[in-house]
């Protein structure tokens, strides 16, 4: 979805192309991406 937004598609255009999605789904994608962009560091757990 982020790739579609970055290509310039609007929410309405995406909803037209993906009929199983709702506006709230796309807003959740944007909220999640915003949260990820605020993460300063990601630690990878190593197997013991």
Automatic annotation (TrEMBL):
<dbReference type="InterPro" id="IPR009057">
    <property type="entry name" value="Homeodomain-like_sf"/>
</dbReference>
<dbReference type="InterPro" id="IPR007367">
    <property type="entry name" value="DUF433"/>
</dbReference>
<protein>
    <recommendedName>
        <fullName>DUF433 domain-containing protein</fullName>
    </recommendedName>
</protein>
<dbReference type="InterPro" id="IPR036388">
    <property type="entry name" value="WH-like_DNA-bd_sf"/>
</dbReference>
<dbReference type="Pfam" id="PF04255">
    <property type="entry name" value="DUF433"/>
</dbReference>
